[in-house]
Amino acid sequence: MAENSPSWPALKRNLVAILRGVTPAEVEEIGETLAAAGFEAIEVPLNSPDPLVSIERLRKHLPETVIVGAGTVLQASQVDTVRNAGGSLVVSPNCDREVIARTAELGMLSLPGVFTASEAFAALKAGASALKIFPANVLGPSGIKALRAVLPEACVIAAVGGVSDGDFADYVAAGARAFGLGSSLYSPGFTVEEVGRRARAAVAAYDLAAGN
To answer: How does this polypeptide assemble, per the annotation (predicted)?
Structure first.
């Protein structure tokens, strides 16, 4: 990890809710439901409707203990707009050194997408706080286990992409310490009650797999 780059925080549960497609009209209630279930990190992908408005509303509505930020951040200039909206987490599907460096420079948490050892080490060198293995279902637990063997012990690996709560145990055994949950947790059209049910199931599965 680059010197002075923010480390991944010590959360009770390393679960990131990915609210792709969420609207500002529903985001506060959904965010509140996720936080009540035990989620401590929420990302709103920038290809959602009015994502910066949703981020701003989440930040104002939720406790400071809940990390709020953006996903699908592809350009360094977008990092500044996320921060201006109140976000402190920047998630990308790829390993863009400029995005990572700008995120670290602003003291924000950087979670870039990587798939190979070369990308993983490049991301850490640029200032990543943790590594998002994406798409995790393609690399699988065995691939993550191989990466885990060569990465620094303190490096937090998040499995994201095609992962649901039924997969947690296998990924934890392989060395993953965090998970990003998208469509298995929220999709446009889900009711708040449905999101709450799925969130509670995910938290219970995480606690079991992580030995909480």
So the answer is: Homotrimer.
